[in-house]
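Exercise 7.
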Amino acid sequence: MAIRVPKGFRLAGVHCGLKSDPRKPDLTLVVSDTPAVAAGVYTQNLVYAAPVALDRERTPSARIRTVVVNSGNANACTGDRGLQDARRMARLAADACGAEEDQALVLSTGIIGEYLPMDKIAAGIEAATAQLGSDDAALISAARGMMTTDTVRKLAGRTLSLSRGQVQITGMAKGAGMIGPRMATMLGLVITDAALEPDVAQSQLAAAAGESFNCISIEGHMSTNDTVLLLANGAADPTPLEGEDLAAFRQALGEVCVELARAIPADGEGATHLITIEVTGCATRDAARQVAKTIAESALVKTAVAGGDPNWGRIVSAAGYAGVPFDPAGVSLRVNGFPLYQAGAPVAFDAKAAAESIRQNRETFVELALSEGEAKCRFWTSDLTVDYVRINADYHT
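Solution. The predicted structure, written as tokens, is:
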């Protein structure tokens, strides 16, 4: 497998009983053999889960040894008991790898408002510790242990040849529903054997998330548990990256995060299309992002794509209520390369061919150009199908 475990990390994913199907892992343990620099970005929801509170306290850090992840239970809206359970979960993981309690971070995802069955969590950490490995199977099992309604595991990686040798960046993520910008019911963990200073790791992760995880949406519902962590243990070389090496790392980290972020709406609950929305010609990037986000979260746009309908009116009108001032006469639109709207007016196009281009392809590319400046943003979402309604109507809360 081209995506490999970075040096000095071991991983495992096991089933401990949080999910009803014993074939599905529901607990993941990641261990760095030496203390790693850790950075994190988190949900902006005022209602946030206990693991988010714990990890915010502990990042950025230069001494993290382990991350424990459970799926099937979010440990959110669980009050003081939830926070105590998160702390115990961290303590169990730290004990398992011979670390101090504050050298452990916790991620949880799943049903909101239920307490963690800590006996199962403890047994899962013990089982995962016995199975820790650094081969492809260990990486895959760890990625699977994060999944809830995901239909596929989400992994991405890059190998870099730098001035002092090779370093590896490998990331895993989960998410398929309750996905809204900044970030969503999604978890991400990126590990690398490169060396970074804590403040550099934090700024690198924040920048990468801004171009990736903060530019995805399925239905715009911001979750309680959004977390992306970056761990850098320096096992490839202990000298912190700088200069051209750091610039190369920054680019590769961004690529890994974009790949993981795209995989989330591509696996959206009930989705049949991944929709890429590129908005250009804005005064600022924030303006471009706001327009793209508004289009991405329009139920009418999403259902049009689901039905293979090149309905340019829904896209243009969504841009118009985004709250971003622009000249309507300067708007142009292309869908899958077909010009549908130019300089504020519709243009003749082959509607049948445009519709077929949507129906016959998993990806739909929407290009909206304004005439206010040079800023742009690329944003990803999924279409909206009856299966999304069925999945979420039946999902136990």
